[in-house]
Amino acid sequence: MNKSKLxxxxxxxxxxxxxxxxxxxxxxxxxxxxxxxREGRLTxxxxxxxxxxxxxxxxxxxxxxxxxxxxxxxxxxxxxxLESDWSKIFKVDYSIAVNSAxxxxxxxxxxxxxxxxxxxxxxxxxxxxxxxxxxxxxAIPIFAxxxxxxxxxxxxxxxxxxTHFTRAIMxxxxxxxxxxxxxxxxxxxxxxxxxxxxxxxxxxxxxxGKFLGTHGDVGVIxxxxxxxxxxxxxxxxxxxxxxxxxxxxxxRNHGEAIVDKDAPDKLLINCIGYNFRLVxxxxxxxxxxxxxxxxxxxxxxxxxxxxxxxLIDEFGDHLIPQRITHVxxxxxxxxxxxxxxxxxxxxxxxxxxxxxxxxxxxxxxISRLMSDNPMFQRxxxxxxxxxxxxxxxxxxxxxxxxxxxxxxxxxxxxxxxxFFQIGWPNAIEDMDDIVRAFRKIMGNKxxxxxxxxxxxxxxxxxxx
Length: 464
Prior knowledge:
464 residues; Aspartate Aminotransferase, domain 2; 7-stranded mixed beta sheet; 10% strand
C-alpha cells in the first residue's frame, strides 16, 4: 500500500468507506409514523371555510396545538404540535409548517404585501431558491455583493442597491452564519424596508441572544433532508407579527377559498390558492427530530471546532475559515473555508478534485452564482415580455441590471471549499480523515502545481 502517493497518481485514497451526514432516525420516530399509518392520518388540512376557521386562523401556534378539530385550516394534530413545539423552543409567536423552505420563502415574501415588480435585495451566493422565491412572489431580486469573510450579504453593497422600488432585504445565513445581520436590520429600519431572513440552514442558532429567523419581519428554516434537523422535505416560517402569520396561513392553504365575502381588500392581497401544506407523517418526524436538536447540533459544533483548529494549525497559510459572527451558538450546516492559492500555487479546483479522489467529498462553490442563471441574465420568467423584471407595479418599463460582484465571483471561482459531512453520524475520527487528505496534498504540492485546476475539476467533479 502507498499511503503517501495521491489517489489521482494511483496511490491509495485516505478513505474508501462512505462519508456523509445522514438522516437521524430513531425507533420512536418509526413507531410514530407507523401509528399514523395505521390510523390513516396522512393529512388533516381542509381548504374551505368550515365553522371555527375565522377564530382559529389568528391563534398563536401554542394556542392552536389543542384545538378540537379533526380537520382544520391549520392542519392536523401533528402539524400543529410541530408548530407549537417550534414556537416554544425558539420563542416565537407563530410557526407555520410548509412543504419546503422554498415554498416558505415564497409565502413569506407574499405575506409582506409585496407588489408585482417590487425589489428585494439579496446576495448571489446561495442555493437557487433564495432568488427564485422572489421571482415566484412576482418581485425582482436585486443582487448585491457579499462580504468575503462572512460569505453573507455585505451591508455596504446592500445600501448601494436600494432604489425607490426596494421593499425588502433578504439576509441569507449561508452555512448557518448570520453575517452582519445587525447592520442589515438597521439598514432596513432606516429605509422603511421589510426583512425576510433566509435562515434555511440555521435552526437553533442564536445571534445576539435571539434565534436566527426571528430577527426580521419573517424568517424561514428548512427541514430538507441534508439540514441540521430534517423531515425529508419541509420548512417552517416564523414571525411574531399576527397579520403576517394569518397571511402565511392563507397562502399556504387555498386562502382565497377561506376568507369570507366581508374580508377587507388587504387580506386578499397576494392570497393566491397555493397548496404548500406539510403532511402529518412528515410533521411527526419533525416533532421527534426537534426533541433531539441540541444533540444533533452539538455534534456539528464539536466536529466543526475540531476540524477548524486542526486545519488552521497545520495549513493556516492556505485555508481561511468562514468568519462566523455568533461563534458561541454555531452549529454549521456546512464547514466553509477559503483556499488561498498564492503560496501553494495550487488552484482551488485542483484541491477539491484531489480531495474527492481521496474519498473526501468537497464542495467547490455552488453550481453557479444565482445571478448567472439564464433567468436573470436574460430577464425571462413569466411570459415573453420580461415580466416581472421590466415592469413595476404601475405598469411602466424600468431597467434591470446585474452589478459586478467581485467578492462573490472570487469566492465562487477561486476560493470556496465546503465540507457537508459535519453532522451525525460523523465524529472526530472522520474529521481526521479530512486533515490527512490535506496533509497528502501539501506533501505532493510540487506535483500538483503543474495540473490545471479546470481540467482536474472536469475529471473528478463526481467524486465519491
